[in-house]
Amino acid sequence: MRKLYIFLISGFLLSGVSVGQSSEVTQQISEFELDYEKFTLDNGLEVILHEDHSDPIVAVATMMHVGSNREKPGKTGFAHFFEHMSFNDSENVPVGANRKMIPEWGGSRNGGTWSDGTVYYEVVPKDAFEKILWIDSDRFGYMINTVTQAALDREKQVVKNEKRQRVDNAPYGYTDDIIRKNLYPKDHPYNWTVIGQLPDLQSATLEDVKEFYKQYYGAANASLVIAGDIEIEETKKLVKQWFGEIPSGPEVEPIKAMPVELESTKNLYFEDNFAKLPELRMVYPTVEDYDEDMYALQILGQLLSGSKKSPLYQTVVEESKFAPRISTYQSSSELAGEFVVRVRANAGIDLDSVQKAVKNGFKRFEEAGVSEDDLKRIKAELETQLYQGVSTVLNKAFQLVQDNEFNGDPGYLTKTAKLTNRVTSQDVMRVYNRYIKDQHYIMTSVVPKGSLDLAIKHSEEAEVWIEEVKKDVASEEVSQGEEAVYNKTPSKYDRSEPDFGDLPLFKSPKIWTAELKNGMQVYEIENNEIPLVEFDITIPGGQLLDPDGKEGVSYLLSDLMLQGTANKTPAELEEALGLLGANVYISTGNEDFRISGTCLSKNFEGTMKLVEEILMEPRWDTTELSRLKQALETNLRDREANPQAIASTAFYKLLYGDNHSFGVPVNGTLKTTANISMEDLKSYYSNLSPDNAKFHIAGAMDKKQVLDVISTMSTDWSTDAPEISNPEISADGEPGTLYFIDVPDAKQSVIMIGKLVLTNNDEDASKLNFANEILGGGSSGKLFQTLRIEKGYTYGAYSGISKNETISPFYISTSVRANATLPSLKIIEEMVTNYSSDFGPAEVELTQNKLLKENTRSYESLGAKLGILREISKYDKSEDFIESQQEELMNMTEEDFKSVITEYLNEKEMIYLVVGDKATQLEEVKKLGKPVIELDIYANKVMH
Q: Would the pTM count as exceeding 0.70?
């Protein structure tokens, strides 16, 4: 067996050694070992196996070397569309099973398409390993005969809904299309977006699907990675059995790299129906993936805008105050690359001023050059990122399969680390001078409708195709249709469904606890798979401690506390964390204020010293507070442009009313945040107490190491805990009422339905979560299966129950194409009304099997392990509460399920909310028969 040693950027970067001045610098490189074995089947399929017995789960990733770069004009979006088609039916798997069965086995599955490739992936409990080989190989090699016209028509609607949701109904959704059309020539494979154009999708035929499959879905045009709790020799036999008969397919000629050069700079503008803020992008053509210049360009992106000392941050954000942030980054694909400058400016800022500030930042960078300390910081941060990139079996599978299929070497991460480590300051300046300085670029000004004065002067209007929504839903109705008639492909193996293996059950990890002298409790799960730790300090309060009428105080405090300390400027704190490769975040939620972080185990002590300094010695920088308030205002205006955000804000206001903090988003509103002062933040800060705080940590540290590091907090932090009151709920929403918010010309309607049900401390909380699974718990739920798979109305539909100590809602959420709003509402209404009566023995068994097995993969990552600790500490649960819940689930009877559904999911007690196009949908939704009340985007009643 061959071993892969990932030579990661290591502690030598922190030792003060000058990097980049001499090629003879001795580097003390740490090693991270990742075993794999590669072999090739007779049909050309390259297979990579990685053994990892840490959890009883297996990840499978199949990478097809075909993306939108293989399409032709007039057939755009086809690679992505085919990915969707692949998840439908296949010869030896029951109709509809691919999307439904895997979640029912306790697994997860999905796919993704980009310019260069398509990946299909699953993670399942170990007992379903051979089943996943059966279903995955059948999708790969035995699906094309089952494709019907009905399936084709249905999937067209699903993909069109995905485009409407992600592009047509989203602010700045058309920008990528504008850039591609102008950066790349018409005959270049990157001239169109991956999702393509709706007319192209609509014109796709069965013959197109079959031709695409035969051309690109041969075994020799793919790589397969299996990672997890497997035995190598046994897995080899199974792979040969299940995948060995798939045809090789015709030879697919590789496409050579096609980097582009621009003859002139192009300035384009677009008035966006959904945007509330002006956005500028400048895109420079650069190099393809795996080109050595890519690594220097990636570091250049970080140097230009990735810290408070960065020149573009200084000129655009800090000095000019034109925007809350700026991003610069390198994006490389198989054939070409792009270096992107992106600024979403504050309201009313003209983009000519922003562009001028960007150019001033470039000039400042040219004059100052590259700081060696900045180079060290970025490389230290990249070391942590590289470890995080292989922190789960699925992440490992992705890394191995990507590098194998696109570079012929599954272990290329070794070289990635070395090439990144090798980048010098001279390399960075060289790529800047070659690809950015005085070079031509594509510039886009996307501005709110009616704000053309904010666009770059002398820009040309961008050409954008915009769909006209039809009122007649019948013209786009689809159905399951009849099954295809075909002769099954012969095989020397039995290709029927294999049996389950031995059932793996979740076993609670070993948890240790302690209490510091100041009252803070400590919880840890030790895990030594990779040299990382994730941690948090959770302090009760969160939004509940915000002053009335000033919701957003805790949110602003969480931002301000990371803007330096009493002894460090914001830039100095950022640099200190960066040199440790540490990520530290502060956030606030409904009920908790949290400081969290990730770092290498070797840097935990240094990281925690900085965390303690952040917590104990805030800077109270008025300049930073002014900047953060401006950034928040920008973000809040941005939120007003997003139909899904509008729906969420209104939904919670309807449920909780004006007098409860939960009726306002955690980051507040333009009204509640306008008059927040530094004194408000200091007052809130005085309530941060260790008395009821919890320290959670998961990763490669033992109990003694953790307590030795955090023990100083017990003497330095001793604030008394405040009393936390929970205001009375006075809901604005009336049960059984439908509320409508107008977003003119919306291509989709956002639907949210629900009611307040219970707290997470309630004895029925787990039972209600179990009972929801059949209705809306993922792609196997009734909502998804009906609204997406059967009807093609949506890209997704789900339901769930929020978790808080405060009474929390049950919710249903989906976005449907505009002309399917009323039919979707009728389906949901009927489904919820009949849910209890339709829940029988089969649903009981399915729920129990699904959730029991799902636990085996739900707690693999360090972040998921932290989630276990938070659940234990916040809700006073036992250390083996997950096993106890499993037992509770297995003891539930059909009557238990029906009882909890009847008690909490009464459809007549729910409120309905629709955010969509009033001109076409308001009269339609009135046909549902419920009282209809119009609201504005702030959830206030519209007076007529």
A: yes
